[in-house]
């Protein structure tokens, strides 16, 4: 992904530079012009991030690239009797709820989720704490679930409610509809061909491959379509955003 995005940015930046520079090589030397060019290039890159980058695919890897172990980070096992009961029962009666601003609220068991079309992707996970791992994920494209639920036109974000408390408060995350409908955004129930381990978010976790690790909500129990992030947690859109001022949009 990184290589292809650099190439894309390079192409666009050269294109813009070429346009601005044609016939103007001499004035290009003055500091004022250089500053203008820099800001024009910045504009071009920001614009291309908005229009092209959001739908670009994250790089996918091959089986040879898989990390020997995919580490578990943050919550490794949600506390509480309800989660423990589900875990002991192999999540047989566990259900995912999709509600909020949808025409048809859904409650789906794992069997139903697995009966839907699946996507498998091998991607690199990047945690802000300074580690990365490549893993193969299998799950349901989130778009299919949203199509089934029927998003209302007032819906702008999805809030992912998780089964765990972290630092004593419920872990949650949110994404906008561009990421929600991205083809690599899936609700994964398998890692490296095995059922998702508890440490990595069993029975279901979000993979939102164009974003940093903390956006990939584990232990997802409920997905709520909302018009605003106000009123959830402290209103900044996620556990880390609320508690440590992490960026809500954590694109990579
Ligand atoms: N529910 C929940 N989701 C979470 C976390 C968490 O503690 N609880 N940690 C986040 C962080 S910071 C990272 S890097 C990834 C770690 O995923 P992993 O445990 O599969 O490595 O999950 C993210 N999602
Ligand atoms: Mo992370």
Give an account of the 3D structure.
Strand 7 (186-191) and strand 8 form a beta hairpin. The protein folds into 2 domains: 5-51, no CATH class; 63-244, Sulfite Oxidase, Chain A, domain 2 (Alpha-Beta Complex). The chain is an alpha+beta fold. Helix 1 crosses helix 2 (31-51). Helix content is 29%, strand content 25%. The strands form 2 sheets. Strands 2-1-10-5-6 form a 5-stranded mixed beta sheet. Strands 3, 4, 7, 8 and 9 form a 5-stranded antiparallel beta sheet that branches. Mean pLDDT is 87; it is low at 1-29.
Helix content: 25-40%
Task: Please name the CATH architecture of the largest domain.
Answer: Alpha-Beta Complex
Radius of gyration: 21 Å
Overall structural class, as computed from helix and strand content, comes to: alpha+beta
E-strand count: 10
**Any idea what the shape is?**
globular
* Spans where pLDDT lies below 50 across 5 or more residues: 1-29
Write the CATH fold name of the largest domain: Sulfite Oxidase, Chain A, domain 2
With strands numbered from the N-terminus, the spatial order across the biggest sheet is: 2-1-10-5-6
Mean pLDDT across all residues, rounded?
87
Strand content: 25-35%
Assigned CATH superfamily of the largest domain: Oxidoreductase, molybdopterin-binding domain
CATH class of the largest domain: Alpha Beta
Overall structural domain count: 2
Give the count of helical stretches: 7
The distinct ligands, each listed once, are: the ligand Nc1nc2c(c(=O)[nH]1)N[C@H]1C(S)=C(S)[C@@H](COP(=O)(O)O)O[C@H]1N2, molybdenum atom
Largest sheet: 5 strands, mixed
Amino-to-carboxy terminus distance: 9 Å
- The secondary-structure element order is HHHEEHEEHEEHEEEEH
């Amino acid at each position: 992904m990184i290589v292809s995005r650099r190439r894309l940015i390079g192409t666009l930046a050269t294109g813009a530079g070429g346009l601005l520079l044609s016939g103007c090589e001499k004035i290009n030397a003055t500091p004022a012009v250089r500053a203008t060019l820099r800001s024009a290039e910045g504009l071009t890159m920001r614009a291309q991030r908005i229009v092209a980058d959001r739908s670009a695919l994250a790089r996918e890897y091959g089986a040879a690239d898989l990390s020997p172990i995919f580490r578990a980070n943050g919550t490794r096992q949600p506390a509480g009797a309800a989660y423990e009961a589900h875990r002991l029962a192999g999540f047989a009666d566990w259900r995912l709820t999709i509600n909020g601003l949808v025409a048809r609220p859904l409650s789906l068991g794992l069997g139903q989720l697995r009966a839907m079309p699946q996507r498998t992707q091998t991607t690199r996970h990047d945690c802000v704490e300074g580690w990365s791992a490549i893993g193969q994920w299998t799950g349901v494209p989130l778009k299919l679930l949203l199509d089934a639920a029927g998003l209302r036109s007032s819906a702008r974000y999805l809030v992912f409610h998780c089964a765990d408390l972290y630092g004593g408060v419920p872990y949650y995350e949110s994404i906008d509809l561009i990421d929600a409908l991205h083809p690599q955004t899936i609700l994964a129930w398998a890692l490296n061909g095995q059922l998702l381990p508890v440490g990595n978010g069993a029975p279901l976790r979000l993979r939102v491959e164009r974003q940093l690790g903390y956006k990939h909500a584990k232990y997802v129990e409920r997905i709520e379509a909302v018009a605003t992030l106000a009123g959830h947690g402290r209103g900044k859109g996620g556990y880390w955003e609320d508690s440590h001022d992490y960026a809500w949009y954590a694109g990579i």
